[in-house]
Amino acid sequence: MRVLSTEETEDHSLEVRTMSGLDLVIVRGWSIAPTVSEKYADLLQFISAHLAKKEHLTIYIKYELFNPLTVKYLFKIIMLLNYQRTLGHNVKIYWDAGEMMEDMLDTGYDLAQFCDFEFKISHS
After folding, report:
1. Cβ contacts of residue 12 below 8 Å, gap of 6+?
2. Rounded to an integer, what distance in angstroms lies between the CA atom of residue 101 and that of residue 83?
3. Do residues 77 and 42 touch, judged by C-beta distance below 8 A?
4. What does each of the 124 residues of the chain score in pLDDT, given as a tens digit?
5. Hey, what domains does the chain have and what are their CATH numbers?
6. CA distance 31 to 41
């Protein structure tokens, strides 16, 4: 397992973990720091490199809080995964909206509309 990045901000962090052997990426925490663009740029590069070698990738996402910049990068990830799907790759996103987090649930439903691949929404 490799940690691409952890951004600390006021005791909250954004964690991006890659598990290439399991074809899995986990993104969780607080995506609010001004430097998140660097973290998502690294993630986009990882996705491209991973799918250049492998056929499958699952991304599990659970935010506590995120900002509009995060949504911009989520859209870029979705567009990249849509493209990879046209090449025959099996890609999925699991969006965990958390408990009683209506905004997260609504955002998940909004993002799912742009996906040409499996986008599962849950609330734990």
Report:
1. 29, 30, 32, 64, 65
2. 30
3. no
4. 444 544 444 447 899 999 989 999 999 999 998 788 889 999 999 999 999 999 999 999 999 989 888 999 999 999 999 999 999 999 999 999 988 688 899 999 999 999 999 999 998 7
5. 2-91 (3.30.750)
6. 14
Tokens of 23: 């074809």
Q: Supply 54's token pair.
A: 């492998």
